[in-house]
User: Fold this.
Amino acid sequence: MKRALVFQHMDHDHPGRFLDFFAEDGIIPVPVRLFEGEAIPSLASYDFLFVLGGAQDTWQEDQYPWLVAEKQAIAEWVGERAKPYFGVCLGHQLLAAALGGEVAAADQGEVGVFDVSLTDEAQGHRLMQGLEPSHKVMQWHLAEVKRAPEGARILASSARTPVQAIAVGDHAVGTQFHCEFTPQTVAGWASLPNYLASLEKHLGPGSYPRLLQDSYPLMPGMARMTRQIYENLVAATGLRK
Assistant:
């Protein structure tokens, strides 16, 4: 079976609906809990790299020294090995930073359900084939990519965040939005007081029930969008062979 290396930055976080995709394709996820000091193994024996979100910022290397090794590993994986990569939120920002782009605090953060639209660069790009021009997505970020790496394509944007998705070649993609979130993911927050407190900090009292009501009817569409991007990446990289 193939193996996906998963860089994890927070407890209780996981690749969500991508785990279903991995199971269907015979890919075993192998998490590395970077926030607990687990070392990144040699990349040679892995087939896919999935980098999750997190509360950290890409520039906080003094506070989180493991970010240095993580960015080096991403640069090796994407820039040198040119193997399949998917990054969400912080994983999207780390992809940009590792390859020479710029990440900084967002002008306006996004927490909740927002609209994103495909860019002109996405038209005809192999990783965006079959997608509608605009989508409702889940967001939870206070930093953003200010400048994409040289050679990267900006594939999606929103009213607040111009760089919502980037691609490096046909083998690496990052999304600022949380396309991995599932109904199970969001339901699980009810048991995580720190997640609920963070939501209320950004969205006010009663924000969690409102977010459930807003997001649940949209989840099937989010699943279809995510599945299409994954299928495009699998086809472009030959991951399913």
